[in-house]
């Protein structure tokens, strides 16, 4: 019994990663969206607003920073990872109710990319676009400059998997998870907040956990 228990402890992480990878691959090609309702070993659900999402590798991934900035830029996955990294461990809270506690994310603070680009006067917000071709999100400039908002390249101390929005996603720690746009490809500084995909369908633009969308969940801080 002790031997079996020890073997289970050793095998569990491998089995969990295999389950997550398998469910993610299936969900990415499921036009019904039903597989996204199934929890995996890590407690996450897989959501996409399109029937499929192309995969990007280190060779072909690009992130653009443009709009009301003095120095537009394009980052590769390698150049993002070469910048100073921040690691945070917070709960992930979905607006649909599920929660994954103490999830590590690591990446570049969004404020660092904005400072490097030189935000112009008159800028009020940030619009995020994604290489799935459909999803978008937004934050006010004040929200985007918070120290707990990352352009993330790692999750759960592993490179960000495609099913989790990799190789790069937004991570907005104090807001519901729909604000943390997956498959991030564009950061555009704008003069006003432009509602994102789910906000156009009725979700709150300011999506603070426990203080929006009619929910009273405990904060993720």
Automatic annotation (TrEMBL):
Residues 52-198 form the Oxidoreductase molybdopterin-binding domain. InterPro entries: OxRdtase_Mopterin-bd_dom, OxRdtase_Mopterin-bd_sf. SUPFAM superfamilies: Oxidoreductase molybdopterin-binding domain. Signal peptide: none annotated. This is Molybdopterin-dependent oxidoreductase. It comes from Streptomyces glycanivorans.
